[in-house]
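I need you to check the entry underneath: sequence plus fold tokens. Let me know what the token row says about the fold.

>
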Amino acid sequence: MIVCCIVVTTGVADLQLNDYPPLGQWAIASPASLNVHEQKLADAVAYAIASENPASKDQAIVQATTFGAREPMIRSLARWACARQLTA
């Protein structure tokens, strides 16, 4: 049973590694060559940009400035994290 799980997991990992092209070698295609309506694509991109979350992409900052700012243990956790980094 364990051997089967390992084989299946390895197979999935191999598929995931081969799903993407090497870095910097992404295929480039025009919307027309993919049968995509160019104006609808442009509208979707504009909507995505306009609807982007204004929060920081750094989750440590987001958590510290939202619910973490009200958490009473945040100072203790921050001290612990700093001490841990200094000893690592």
Remarks:
- The mean pLDDT is 76.
